[in-house]
Amino acid sequence: MRTLSMCVLAATVLLSGCDATAPPAATPTATPPPPPPPPGPAAAPTVATQETVIRDSASQVLGVDAPNQKGADYTWSYTRVLFTNYFGIKETVALGQVKQALQIYESTHGHKPKTNEEGMEAIKDVPLPELPDENHWYEFDPEKQELIVAHKEQVPVQP
């Protein structure tokens, strides 16, 4: 009889997937919530900001013509010439094509582009270099007659 009850117990343990020799699991006790954080310095007041559009020359943004850069070394070594030509050639060619397209527009229409729309229409076929992100875009400045890069930036509002 004893063997039969042990077999039934063993079969029950095997079917249930439990280990009969393991001690019963301890029930978790409720832990008290952590103490509130000590009072720290007052939160800094939020500064009101507004979104402003910044416009810079495309040649300066693309790094083709960046005069007076801080720490710029103007000595032309062999490696500097190679790197400048390799990495800046697409931007230089694109800006040259923009100037050429504007000259063609002036010769065919008899005047320089007077608005941003006319300027962008004049250079629509020029493959412009990619900009860093979607917050940057190209515009045409009719006063300076040049391509510019505009981007949005958050600036603090002066009271």
Low-confidence blocks of residues: 68-72
What's the tally of helices?
Answer: 4
Please state the structural category.
alpha+beta
Give the biggest beta sheet.
3 strands, antiparallel
How many beta-strand segments?
3
Topology pattern, helix = H, strand = E: HEHHHEE
Description:
- With 159 residues, this protein is α+β, with helices and mostly antiparallel strands.
- It has a domain at 49-64 and 76-156.
- It has 4 helices and 3 strands.
- The protein has helices at residues 2-16, 58-61, 78-109, 116-122, and strands at 49-57, 136-141, 146-156.
- The chain has a 3-stranded antiparallel beta sheet with strand order 1-3-2.
- The longest helix is centred in the middle third of the chain and has 32 residues, at 78-109.
- The N and C termini lie far apart (93 Å).
